[in-house]
Amino acid sequence: MKRSRINEIMSAAGDMIHEFGFTLPPFAYWTPEEFKARKDDARHVIDARCGWDITDYGAGRYDELGLFLFTLRNGLLADLQRGGGMCYAEKLLISRQDQLSPMHTHALKAEDIINRGGATLVVELFGSDDNGNFAEDKGGTVWLDGIRHEYRPGEKLCLAPGESVTLRPGDWHAFWGEGGDVLIGEVSTVNDDETDNIFREPIGRFANVEEDEAPKHLLVSDYRSWLG
User: Fold this and answer.
1) pTM tops 0.90
2) Dist. CA 94–CA 227, nearest whole Å
3) Radius of gyration (Cα) for the chain, nearest Å?
4) Exposed, middle or buried, 201 (CB in 10 Å: 0-12/13-18/19+)?
5) Which DSSP symbol is given to 31?
6) Rounded to whole angstroms, how far apart are CA atoms 36 and 30?
7) From the CB of residue 148, how many other CB atoms can be counted at a distance below 10 Å?
8) Count of Cβ atoms closer than 10 Å to residue 20 Cβ
9) Residue 186: per-residue pLDDT
10) What's the CA gap between 113 and 94, in Å, rounded?
């Protein structure tokens, strides 16, 4: 993705988030130079990879296959592994109309996916085989706003604003906005986007960035090269 396109998406996403009454934390608006200057104080933000995340999954078709995310808060895997401390994470996502977030699951993360506003959020579900692999003939169990629901293989949940689904490891899921764009909340156990996304198809998690202009704000995938 071109950096200029990423900057445009950031601006549009910020406007949509504001329209629905949410405000991002102050570090969201730091310039790259401010982030460099404050990187010691912001070490947890960097290590937990909080911040802007815009991906086309390396496919170069963001409008069709992509997702906007902002990680508001996140613990560390060490906390989760010892069963104490900051064992949770929270994100805001934007799924544009008919923009696919492709079929995947997680080995560790359990998550609530919440329609925070906008159009309908469609979540397509499949279960796993005995080895945890995608199974086109398996369903499973999720919770819709805390109510148990047995899903069929390939079932599509249609979540209106305010509705949510709880997904656990082994629940394979893809999602998109139907009828318009959707602001999505995600509340989960500690999030590790580098190792805990298992895709059905062999695709990347992060975008390959073409630097055609300076970044408006750093992506979480920029932290290593920009901040060390």
Assistant:
1) yes
2) 26
3) 17
4) exposed
5) -
6) 9
7) 9
8) 12
9) 98
10) 12
What whole-number distance in Å separates Cα of residue 35 and Cα of residue 42?
8
In sequence order, what are the beta bridge partners of 74?
Answer: 89
Residues 89 and 50: their CA atoms lie apart, in Å, by 9
The CA-based angle 106-118-173, given to 5 degrees, is: 20
Torsion over CA: 117, 75, 101, 14 (sign): positive
Residue 173, amino acid: H
* pLDDT of 132 over the 90 cut: yes
At residue 204, the pLDDT reads 87
- Average pLDDT over the chain, rounded to an integer: 96
Q: Where are the beta strands (DSSP E) in the chain?
A: 51-55, 67-74, 88-95, 101-105, 111-128, 134-135, 140-144, 147-151, 155-159, 164-167, 172-189, 198-199
